[in-house]
Specification:
Elements (H helix, E strand, L loop, with lengths): L11 H16 L3 E5 L2 E8 H13 L10 H13 L4 E2 L15 E3 L46 H7 L11 E3 L6 H20 L15 H9 L18 H11 L15 H14 L11 H7 L6 H13 L3 H19 L12 H13 L9 H19 L4 H15 L2 E3 L20 H11 L1 H13 L5 H14 L1 H7 L3 H5 L14 H4 L15
Antiparallel strand pairs: 1-2, 2-4, 3-4, 5-6
Helix pairs in contact: 2-3, 5-6, 5-10, 5-14, 7-8, 7-11, 11-12, 11-13, 12-13, 17-18
């Protein structure tokens, strides 16, 4: 009895329903039964159906071994209501299925549930303020756009840092981020991270992004106690003091010396019932109605525990702070009760762990519209929460760090160099297309060298530059891009041809140089006698 694993994605609950119905109809053993002196072919008793389906669900990785027989009976009631099965008289439509010897059969046809048609939520493109964004209220429709031309002068200014010559610069302070900008950054990056973990192309079919409140995310990250529990600003949304006292009593059993009321036999059961009644009468489950599909989708990752924990961490950040606080306190109490060996049995029919799951699963996860497998899915989620609540209800540090770095980057100053990209309006970024590996290797080898080679030729052909300036820029280019330079000037002789040596002029002969050189005065013999 193999049950295919249904991964994360939209309509996961419907896919699980159809998968279970198909397996049940295809593999449930059928045989002849007698009832009231009448023989019925190809049918089964209610108890046989419960036995077989219970074993199927327990062995399924989609539901797990925590599924109880009572939950299996509830599922078969829904099968009868939706005409997956009918009694041998052809009756169906009501949830009167019981775990007994009553006979049931499969109808001739049992159509699977169609996927619900949900409105596609409009994708809001969140644009964060950039360095060159104009102040609010200004328009750029009539601003002339000057194209970027990479000439030799521009290249020299852009690459002056690489060669160690930094020209004069000025600091341009970025327009200050507003509170709304920061909230949108938190919301966008959080949802993008969740979408990446789930491996979905879009979250629009599992989550209404418009209902996600960015203020909740920020509050759940920063307004926490030393124990990691959310601190509420509005104290009226706190748990009632009597509920909180009851939870503390059971969580710290038997160390409850601060409990003033007298204790009696069955006292702990009454305290537990008080807590269960409060959580059972909440108007909305703790994980909220609009996040139901998101949490059910994450259940498809339970085979990858680390990814599932991270996805649950992010989903729990989307909760209202009061819901997150109630969930944190409830899960801590449930885990402590299950680990406390001194705790008396709270129920005679169930173990403590099973009782916790059965009692609180519906107040934690529930769909606004009736979903056929919501009870099994809620039990599966609560079981995983109890085993990993300390990690799941902790703020994901990697996500927090990445968002804080993003906000800090947008708040930094920018260095502008005179003449470099000043007063230039950049065109909007274009979208990428997938290319073949051969195209990628070609572009990697030649795509960046062609513009550089053209730039080098422009420097060489620039007649306005003197030989001294041209030699200086060519030396800078050779230092920054030696491969491109080597391809253009493979030998020293080819480089020398660019600057041919001028012939040295012959020394001019002056007329006085042809005359007899000056002779020193020689003393002669005197003619005087």
């Amino acid at each position: 009895m193999e049950h295919r694993i249904v991964g994360p994605g939209p309509y996961r609950a419907t896919k699980l329903w159809n998968e279970t119905v198909e397996l049940f109809r295809a593999r449930m053993p059928l045989r002849r039964h007698r009832c009231r002196f009448k023989s019925h072919e190809n049918c089964f008793t209610a108890a046989e159906a419960v036995d077989w389906l219970h074993e199927l669900l327990r062995n399924s990785q989609n539901f797990g071994p925590e599924v109880t027989r009572k939950q299996t009976v509830q599922l078969l009631k829904k099968f009868l209501k939706n005409h997956v099965i009918e009694d041998v008289k052809g009756k169906w439509g009501q949830e009167d299925f019981e775990d007994n010897r009553h006979l049931y059969r499969f109808p001739p046809s049992s159509p699977l549930k169609p996927y619900p048609k949900k409105p596609l939520y409009q994708r809001d493109v969140i644009k964060f303020p950039e360095w060159n964004d104009p102040p609010p209220g200004t328009s750029q429709e009539n601003i002339p756009v000057r194209p970027i031309v990479m000439n030799s002068e521009m290249w020299f200014k852009r690459h002056s840092i690489a060669i160690g010559e930094v020209p004069a610069c000025r600091l341009v302070h970025r327009r200050q981020l507003t509170e709304a900008n920061v909230e949108e950054i938190w919301k966008s990056m959080t949802l993008s991270h969740l979408q990446k973990i789930l491996g979905l192309d879009s979250l629009e079919e599992v989550l209404n992004i418009k209902l996600v409140n960015s203020k909740f995310i920020i509050h759940n990250v920063y307004s926490v106690s030393k124990q990691g529990v959310v601190i509420l600003d509005d104290k009226s949304k706190e748990l009632p003091h009597w509920v909180l006292s009851a939870m503390k009593c059971l969580a710290n059993w038997p160390n409850c010396s601060d409990w003033k009321q007298p204790m009696y036999l069955g006292f702990e059961k009454d305290v537990f019932k008080t807590i269960a009644d409060y959580y059972g009468h909440l108007k909305e489950p703790l994980l909220t109605f609009h996040l139901f599909d998101a949490f059910v989708s994450v259940l498809g990752l339970l085979q990858k525990e680390k990814m599932a924990v991270e996805a649950f961490q992010i989903c729990c950040l989307l909760l209202p702070p009061e819901n997150r606080r109630k969930l944190q306190l409830l899960m801590r109490m449930m885990a402590r009760i299950c680990l406390n060996k001194e705790m008396p049995p709270l129920c005679d029919g169930f173990g403590t762990r099973t009782l916790m799951v059965q009692t609180f699963s519906r107040c934690i996860l529930c769909s606004k519209d009736e979903v056929d497998l919501d009870e099994l899915l809620a039990a599966r989620l609560v079981t995983f929460l109890m085993d990993n609540y300390q990690e799941i209800l902790k703020v994901p540090s990697a996500l927090q760090t990445s968002i804080e770095e993003r906000v800090a980057h947008l708040r930094r100053v920018q260095i502008k160099y005179p003449g470099a990209d000043m007063d230039i309006t950049l065109s909007a970024p274009s979208f990428c297309r997938q290319i073949s590996p051969e195209e990628f290797e070609y572009q990697r080898a030649y795509g960046s060298q062609e513009p550089l080679a053209a730039l080098l030729e422009e420097v060489i052909a620039d007649a306005k530059l003197s030989n001294k300036e041209k030699k200086k820029k060519l030396k800078q280019f050779q230092k920054s891009y030696p491969e491109v330079y080597q391809e253009r000037f493979p030998t020293p002789e080819s480089e020398a041809l660019l600057f041919p040596e001028k012939p040295k002029p012959k020394p001019q002969l002056f007329m006085w140089a042809l005359r007899r050189p000056f002779q020193p005065f020689q003393r002669t013999r005197s003619f005087r006698m």
